[in-house]
Amino acid sequence: MTAARRPADAGGRPLLLALAGLTLVAFLISLAVGYVRFDLVGALDDAIHGRDSLGALALIELRLPRAALGATVGFSLGLAGAAMQGLLRNPLADPGVVGVSGGAALGAVVAFYSGLAAALPLALPLGGVAGAAVAAIALYALAGRGAGTMTLILAGVTINSFAGALTALALNLSPNPYAATEIMFWLMGSLADRSLPHLYLAGPLSLVGWALMLSAAPALDALSLGEDTAQSLGFDLARLRARLIAGSALAVGAGVAVSGAIGFVGLVVPHLLRPLVGHRPGRLLLASGFGGAIALLVADVAARLLPVHPELKLGVITALIGAPFLFGLIDRMRREG
Amino acid sequence: MRVVVSQAVVRFGERKALDGVDCAVGGGEMVALVGPNGAGKTTLLRALADLQPLQAGEARYDGRRARELPRGEFARRVAYLAQGGEAHWPLRVDHLVALGRLPHRRPFADLSAADRAAVEAALAATDVAHLRARTLDRLSGGERARVLLARALAVEAEILLADEPAAALDPLHQLAAMAVLRDVARRGAGVVVVLHDLTLAVRFCDRVVALAGGKAIADGPPAALTDAVIAAAYGVEALRGEHRGEPFLVPWRAIGAGREGAGG
Amino acid sequence: MRAFPTAGDGERGAAAGAAFPRNWGRRRVAARLCALALAAVAAVSSPVLAKPQRVVSLNQCADELVLRLADRDAIASITWLSQDPREADMAAAAAGLSVNDGLAEQALAYRPDLILVGAFTDPATVALLRQVGAPVVALDVPETFDAVRRQFRDVAAALEEPARGEALVADLDRRLAAAEAPVDASRPPLRAIVLRPGGFTVGPGSLVDEIMRRAGMINLAARLDVGAYPQLPLEKLVMLDADVAVVDDEGFAAPALAEAALAHPAVAALARRMRFVSLPSRLWTCPGPALADAVRVLAEAGAAARRGRAER
């Protein structure tokens, strides 16, 4: 046995570089896919030279925000899923399952349909952030501190039901007759016809959220040994919880405000990537971010290519894949006791 | 470093887990913390590790309170091994042991040469080096306990507080673990170990602290563990003896159980 | 279908009782027999002999026709929608009348002798009304101007006001003639697309399609193969390179996502290249003289679009 051999670096830089590369590829594919074929290179050339062509308009105002938001929201969902799973030490935690996305949708709906967002555009993502934060705090109060899976799921069901009901109520109370029909967008999510202003609203808040969550990586590693040990290794648990709750509220809240609640990305992606990072919660964070971006971009491309009209909501596609996956996961957990 | 806990009082609801306990440990000594279940051993150990808020009394580290020291420095100088061996994700053994180096590492930096050396030393000392690539879910209970001990050793702290590190181990590895801990103490660290095995306590440790009902009823060299103390703490009679200069102390009979008088 | 008792029954009974006095001439017998025969035929062929006196409308489009074609005294109730202040003419005409929410119980409370419902009125409501024996006339959604004229005449007939029905048709035709864009074979029709809230457009073969045609425009949706559920992703809208966008924007004060789509920056950028004309759906969702206004609005916008293009 060689002495001082470097511990094998599973899930190190090569994995992250590969995931980042795949994200870029998925982003480019999303730019290239749409409802109309046009000369992308020509359109890009027009856009760069400031020529006012239809192709440039479609590329910059429609395809670019859609692809960029797909990557941004997907990154937020994957990262938040990994962060919550690390904090709650439970592989079933996911912003959708535990109700954080539902809370975000409620906050955004209130901000939008009350007219607040029309007066102050930033109120839309901030409303989402506020709703997500309330849900996350409620979740932690109900199921934090090493509560078992059953408590966690029940807490999530409770928060989701309540937030969903309030969302439907808010939509019904809106004086605009179209509001009541828009619940599918908020509960299942879509990136159709999003705009650059949406990206500007959601982007900066998401970045702050990402930074907060990623900075918790070493603490999450320590937390796998339990709260006492993590504290003895020098981590302030109260600050860790605050950072993770705030970070996931910012990223998920801002994302849901512009895309609606899209579930299962934060559940499936960390689960698939966990073995590739040696089950280390810290490394899983950034990897899940990229994984989530790839997953959502692929789902969005599928939504546009599938011959279904009107366009399938993204949450439908992710649920069709994610729900059976969740079944399998629960079944395996049950069998392992 | 010298850790001094004075007049510690800890209440959980109505019950007093610690009722005015004094305990001190300094570099180079190995202290055994013994007593029946629920006596307050884990609570006292956590108080020494600054993990347990005290309703009265205080803990001082080289004369200073814990919050006067930077978090990172405290974590480097005081290591804690929790009871029960919680480890949530099926990490690789070497990655888990490397977690002990977190207080020494800058947040996103790789392991330094010193880190790797500490990890290797810890793996070797607990005889788990051959398991380095295995994941936790593939280890036996005893192997797992040794890996967690290695993690605590990897911190290379001045004070090591271990809660029942030998509980799940087979006799060979129990002796080995105690030998490792004594070695750590000999090299200058202060070690406090919670034990149920009285022989291990009197054989390997420089001092024994006996707790019962939240109070310290004995604190001194192994001879302080008299029959009266053992009877008061455990309600048992113990068999004493010596082999080649090293004592052994075996719980023999519950007090008031048999009609025969105390054995030899 | 049992007729509701009306004032005529008593007279008919009295005539029959007096039919056979002992000394009557053959001509009088023949005359009485003819009258009886006519009354019997009338009783069999139409359940209500006299003009409906208590008309209830459960549908907004029916409201408008009822207000235009029936005597005010004959109207028992119309829906609350017709009192919407944004439709000044209709609201003025509807003021003071009793309103309903389109529910069956409310309708029956008026003891109606004619109920008008729409094609999309809840089928359960319609079935209930028919079961109770109320005479129900269901209006479909006309997709051509010929169908519109037919509907005017049908409703007029149900209300026993055929003359007013013809007058309404003539009024519509007169306004249309004034509004339509002159057909000019040398100029190709303007390429137009309808933008409705929620990214919807209007497919071929509908009334809006015909309105656009009469205004000298061609509905590009026909080329897009939009099918039964005409949703138009903004990307397709951009690449269509239409000349005119007909925007159905009700302008509700309260926000909704459906209308936010019309405020997308891509749509705003298109405003530089195409002419946007606002055509609220209330001008064309119900058949009435306002349809001609819709044609006029589009024709004027089309003329402006051509002028703008000539200038460029």
Q: What is the gist of this entry?
A:
The complex is a heterotrimer of chains A (337), B (264) and C (312). With 337 residues, chain A is mostly helical.
Structure overview:
The complex is a heterotrimer of chains A (337), B (264) and C (312). Chain A is mainly α and 337 residues long. Chain A has a single domain, classed as Orthogonal Bundle (ABC transporter involved in vitamin B12 uptake, BtuC), CATH 1.10.3470.10. Chain A has helices at 13-32, 40-48, 54-88, 100-113, 116-119, 123-143, 149-173, 183-188, 196-214, 217-223, 227-232, 237-259, 265-273, 281-305, 314-336. Chain B has 264 residues and is of the alpha/beta class. Chain B has a domain at 3-86 and 156-254: P-loop containing nucleotide triphosphate hydrolases (Rossmann fold, 3-Layer(aba) Sandwich). Chain B has eight helices and eleven strands. Chain B has helices at residues 41-48, 71-77, 93-98, 113-125, 141-154, 171-186, 198-204, 227-234; strands at 3-12, 15-25, 30-34, 56-61, 78-81, 159-163, 190-194, 207-212, 215-220, 236-243, 246-254. A six-stranded mixed β-sheet of chain B has the order 5-6-7-3-8-9, sandwiched between helices. In chain B, strands 2-1-4 form a three-stranded antiparallel β-sheet, with helices on one face. Chain B has a two-stranded antiparallel ribbon with strand order 10-11. In chain B, helix 4 (113-125) runs antiparallel to helix 5 (141-154). The N and C termini of chain B lie far apart (42 Å). Chain C is α/β, with parallel strands linked by helices. The model of chain C is unreliable at 1-21 (pLDDT under 50). Chain C has 13 helices and nine strands. Helix content of chain C is 46%, strand content 12%. Chain C has two domains: 55-177, Nitrogenase molybdenum iron protein domain (Rossmann fold, 3-Layer(aba) Sandwich), CATH 3.40.50.1980; 184-311, Nitrogenase molybdenum iron protein domain (Rossmann fold), CATH 3.40.50.1980. Chains A and C meet through helix 3 of A and helix 10, helix 11 and helix 12 of C.
